Structures are given as structure tokens and as C-alpha cells.
Amino acid sequence: MVSDDLARRFLHVNLNCASLDSTEDLYVRQLGLSARMRTDPKVPTDGSILGLDGETYCATSFLYDSRGGRSGCALEAIEYHSPALKRDESTDPARPGIRSALMTVADLAGTVARLRDGGVTVGDPVDGLISGAKSVLAIDPDGVVVELAEIPGADASGGALFGGVRIAAIDAVATGEFLTAIGFVEVQAPTLVDVSGDQLVPRGSADAVECVVSRYAVPEDAHQFSLMVVQHPGTRHQDPVPWGGNHQGLYRCAMRVEDTDKALAAVPDSVEVMGDPVWCPLPGTKIEGLYIAFLRSPDGVVFEFVERPLKFFSR
What we know:
Layout (H helix, E strand, L loop, with lengths): L8 E9 L2 H11 L3 E3 L8 E2 L8 E10 L3 H4 L2 E9 L14 E9 L2 H10 L8 E2 L6 E6 L5 E6 L10 E8 L3 H10 L3 E12 L11 E10 L8 E6 L17 E9 L2 H7 L5 E2 L4 E4 L7 E8 L5 E6 L8
Parallel strand pairs: 1-5, 6-9, 10-13, 14-18
Antiparallel strand pairs: 1-14, 2-4, 3-4, 4-5, 6-10, 7-8, 8-9, 11-12, 12-13, 15-17, 16-17, 17-18
């Protein structure tokens, strides 16, 4: 039985980008998400919250699908002004971290044609790892793999829906133990699956290797958002993602909890907790700020407990 004090739903997944304009061009103008709640980049924040020295200056844009903030998971795009973005020089699709995001669309062929016309790198159809359906992989301006899958009968005018993320894990069992310890439910136990290179990155190799694959979700998301874990042989002996909030690409998952102190008290000692809960201001938005606490998975992926009581999600 999962404690109600632990993670209850995905609030947002953080994407550290070189340019908010380029990121919004793909996710907003081409995939149909809506940009809301942009923070004021002129107001400094305490960088120590995210393992950075001194004050930080950044612009943040929360990108929502048609379900909005009460029902869907947002993409939190951050453009760092100071300190500078730590660029990801590696293109290894098996490197540890959050490697891809699932966007479901009403018209896959039309979406692919539009992206290709816009100069986006798009692969050929594959079996999607997150969706479990016929998918096409694209690559965003910061190297994030976007898995595009079709939902038959969906409203094409509503744009894409953000449906999940994939973590490249050093040890799938250890990652699964971490996830269940912070509130996730195991939907698919670790299983050996043949995964080809073109399922990890657009235009990858068709050759397949045996990987350990598992799936997790949190109680309030039901089946609309899932987290896929893939342990690839190429990931097995790599180092975890370093601590520090300005690493390029998908970096951090924010999870709703009722109370950060109670949530941390319910987490076992085996979980790496990055300090006590702190107040995080959100300058320039309708929300003054939030109490948050950070935890790191064995792969270095950061999970953020955000104190956001359920009453804020009532219509």
C-alpha cells in the first residue's frame, strides 16, 4: 500500500533549453501545447536550491497540453541566463537520465509531415517504448527524443498530449526500488525485451540488444502518464547524471505531495534526499512560490516533491 503522503501525480517535467523561443517553436507552434506562467528572468533566485552557487537568473515557461494544469503534466522549459546552460556534448542514446518524452497526437502522419517541413529530424515508424504503439521519433533542439504516437479518434484541434517519459537506467531494479519508495506503483515488472537503436533515437540502428524494461505510474495519473525505465547494456556501467539544475535536456520530474515534511518523513533511508524542504519563489507568475524538496534516483535523475494540496486541483 503506497502512502498518501508520497508522490501523487506528475506536475511537470523540466527541460533545460538553450533557447525558449526554439523550444516553444516545436512544442507550442508545431505540437500545439500552450505556453503559460512565464517567470521574470530579471528576478534572481537562490541557486543552492538546485545545487548551483550564488544567485541564478533564468526564464521559465510552463507548457501545458489541452488538459491544463489541473489534469495534465506540464513541460517546464527553462532558459538559463546565469549561470550558463551546461551543454550536453554526448549523443549516446543510452547515457543515463531522462532520455525521451511521449507526445500523443490525433494525426501521426500529418504531424510528422509538419515537423519535417519545419526542419525537425524525424525517424521512420517504430514500436514506441513508452506508448507501446506504432510511433515515430523526433529530436528537439536540445537533443531530447520525442516519441510521437497516434490516438485514434482524438480531437486534432486539441494538439498533442504529454503522455510519459523514459529513463535510461544504470540498474533498472535499483531505479524501480527508488521509484516505489517515493510513491510510484509498478505497472510492469522488469522484463527482458529486445530494443533496437531506432527505438532510442531517430534514424538509429535496426540492430536490437536485450534490455531490462519496466513501467511505473503514480496514483492520481492512472494510465494517462507513465514512466518507462530501460536498462540498456550501454548504460549499465556509466556514471549517474551529475547534481546541478542547469544540465541541458530533460532533467527533473516534479511530483505533487500534500506536505513536503510528511512526504520526506515517509521516504526510507535508502533514498538520497538533497537537503531539507525549501521555499521556491515563482516571480512573475500567479503563484507566489511553493515548498519543494529534491531527491535523486540511482541514475542521478532528480525528483522534486512539490507541496501542492489536492484542493488546488478542484474545479
